[in-house]
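User: I'm new to structure prediction. If I give you an amino acid sequence, what do you actually give back? Let's try with this one:
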Amino acid sequence: MASRNIICRGILSKKSGFGIRSMSSWWGHVEPALKDPILGVTEAFLADPSPNKVNVGVGAYRDDNGKPVVLQCVREAERRIVGKQNMEYLPMGGNVKMVEETLKLAYGENSSLLKEKRIAAVQALSGTGACRLFADFQKRFKPDSEIYIPVPTWSNHHNIWRDAQVPQKTFHYYLPKTKGLDFESLMVDIENAPNGSFFLLHACAHNPTGVDPTEEQWREISHQLKVKGHFPFFDMAYQGFASGDPERDAKAIRIFLEDGHSIGCAQSYAKNMGLYGQRIGCLSVVCQDEKEAVAVKSQLQQIARPMYSNPPVHGAQIVPTILGDPDLKNLWLQEVKGMADRIIGMRTALKENLEKLGSSLSWQHITDQIGMFCYSGLTPEQVDRLTNEFHIYMTRNGRISMAGVTTGNVGYLANAIHEVTKSGSK
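Assistant: Good question. You get back a string of structure tokens that encode the predicted 3D arrangement of the chain. For your 426 residues, that looks like this:
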């Protein structure tokens, strides 16, 4: 009987395609995914045995010794909450206190929008999750709309709106010739976009270029978007980390609110509190009134439910512990300014080192730009030379993470850049 069952199973497998042997072909057609252009840099860096290797591709803060940092305010917040939290689920909308403090940071302590309860907001899985929630919300409730994305932008923005099945268009932003803002073309693109389009904007420290509009340019952008009835969605991943002043870094959002825009905003505590792995962020949408805000929040929660059900607990307790305590908040403000100042200092040092080497090129853009990243103007071929000849790792678009630059390696980096650029202009 046993041998008969074996024979029958073999026949079934051959005739119907079912069985053990056929199972291996279920995913045989799946090709390996392309490596993430940013994460792939770190993989290559780690595999390099050279003692002189430098990683200026990482999108996370490092101290002047090139080491990861945990802020003192974070450690103190953890000390206060340790042993006091349970492991129960958070509501779909997340930690209410965290959301409240986060909205104050973006919209202002005394914002009338907060008092009137006109903001729909939920805790999100850092900035990426906040963007994805909004993209799905846009697709569900404005199904015929498109999203205008700046050229260039953080590469994952394209993935987020693509996977949410929102059609994408682009608008001019960076001008390679000046290594600055292509303001005229940007304004033309806003004017030419169909009325009621969605525009993705970086609130501060534009990634990857480090090029931000001036306050006056932000006012003109806001005005033109209002005239056209466009919806501005801000990705604010670097509040406080850009200039060292959270209020200054939120200026663009405040300008748009003064002009009466309804905006969306993605916030993250990855960079400005160093909570990278905690995945703590917030999505907020300004609504017409409290009733609309309640409805919008309920729908955001419904979108989150099948996606990840509810957000993580630990980081969501760290944030309000810091922002809700005057002493800890002051400590955070000091520490985030310290991080910003180190980045700004490394910009100055890199520029000065290049100039001392006698470079015939202008490196003014290094200090004109702001935030974690410097859009160097290096070509992909020059970046390849930096990697192959000098063991310096960065993305091939020439984006330098200033967090990876230290007093110990800035001279070596400047010399390498000088070597690959001195034979021709960028």
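You can read the tokens as a compact description of the fold. Here is one thing that stands out. The chain has two domains: 39-69+340-421, 90-324.
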